[in-house]
Design goal:
InterPro entries: AAA+_ATPase, ABC_transporter-like_ATP-bd, ABC_transporter-like_CS, ABC_transpr_LolD-like, P-loop_NTPase. Pfam families: ABC_tran (PF00005). This protein has 221 residues and is an alpha/beta fold. The protein has a domain at 2-91 and 152-211: Rossmann fold, CATH 3.40.50.300. The protein has seven helices and nine strands. The strands form two sheets. The protein has a five-stranded parallel beta sheet, with helices on both faces. Strands 2-1-4-5 form a four-stranded antiparallel beta sheet, with helices on one face. A hairpin with a 2-residue loop joins strand 4 (57-62) and strand 5. Helix 3 (98-108) crosses helix 4 (115-124) and helix 3 (98-108) runs parallel beside helix 5. The structure holds adenosine-5'-triphosphate. Adenosine-5'-triphosphate binds at residues 11, 14, 18, 36, 38-44, 196.
């Protein structure tokens, strides 16, 4: 479901590429951990897979779509339908309640505004009584679950989670990984999560590991 070949990315003005992935594949329903030190390009890779960034060279194919072939508008629609993205900075809209933050996924991908699905996801994630709460009325863990519900709303084939265990203690780290896995497995989605946290390797032992290194001139992975 995910194939990466000869992928290189360099931000404008940077002297050397921030990221190089020669080859990586993931089958539908398989899970992967992208691990590496700060600055090694983990977030960049997830943004490339989600077609938020365009690679300098190389190819990424997700669910038989070569991302490079998509126009920016087509990429937005494609992302909304096939990718669930749990960003590191959860990016909830402060003026919207939990339910409406989740429904943004439907809006972004031009799908039906199914508030009963949003409420069902909130209940499944233990937030059945928080549908009308705004982000500032939620704990950090609750906000993360709202963002996860938003990512799951369109039943994505690929769930991307950027540093989902940052700043979590050991038991919360295990719980966060278990929740992500349960949600991905329920709909048969593949899960790709990025981390610099070695605990995640233990919490997700069946995950394929893609190890990134801190960039140096002429670096390869
Ligand atoms: N928008 C940008 N413009 C220019 N350089 C960027 C941009 N975003 C990230 N970078 C640089 O690209 C490199 C990789 O950044 P990235 O955020 O992908 O790393 P990371 O492994 O996710 O780091 P962390 O674990 O600290 O979140 C870093 O050197 C960073 O400074």
């Amino acid at each position: 479901m995910l194939q990466i070949a000869n992928l290189t990315h360099r931000y404008p003005g940077a002297p050397t590429p921030q990221l190089h992935v020669p080859a990586f594949t993931l089958a539908q329903g398989e899970h992967a951990i992208v691990i590496g030190p700060s600055g090694s390009g983990k977030s960049t890779l997830l943004h490339l897979i989600a077609a938020i960034l365009t690679p300098q060279s190389g190819d990424i194919t997700v669910a038989d779509t070569s991302i490079a072939t998509l126009t920016p508008r087509a990429a937005d629609l494609w992302r909304g339908r096939h990718i669930g993205f749990l960003p590191q900075k959860l990016a909830l809209i402060p003026s919207l309640n939990a339910r409406d933050n989740i429904l943004l996924s439907a809006y972004a991908s031009g799908q039906a505004n199914d508030s009963s699905r949003a409420d069902a996801l909130l209940s499944a994630l233990g937030l059945g009584d928080k549908a009308t709460a705004r982000p500032h009325q939620l704990s950090q863990g609750q906000k993360q679950r709202v963002a996860l519900a938003r990512a799951m709303f369109n039943r994505p084939q690929l769930l991307l989670a950027d540093e989902p265990t940052a700043n979590l203690d050991d038991s919360s780290c295990d719980a966060a990984i278990a929740l992500l896995l349960a949600q991905a497995n329920e709909i048969g989605a593949s899960l790709v999560l990025s981390t610099h946290d070695a605990r995640v390797l233990q919490a997700l032992p069946q995950g394929k590991v893609l190890r990134l290194q801190a960039p140096v001139a002429g670096a390869s992975i």
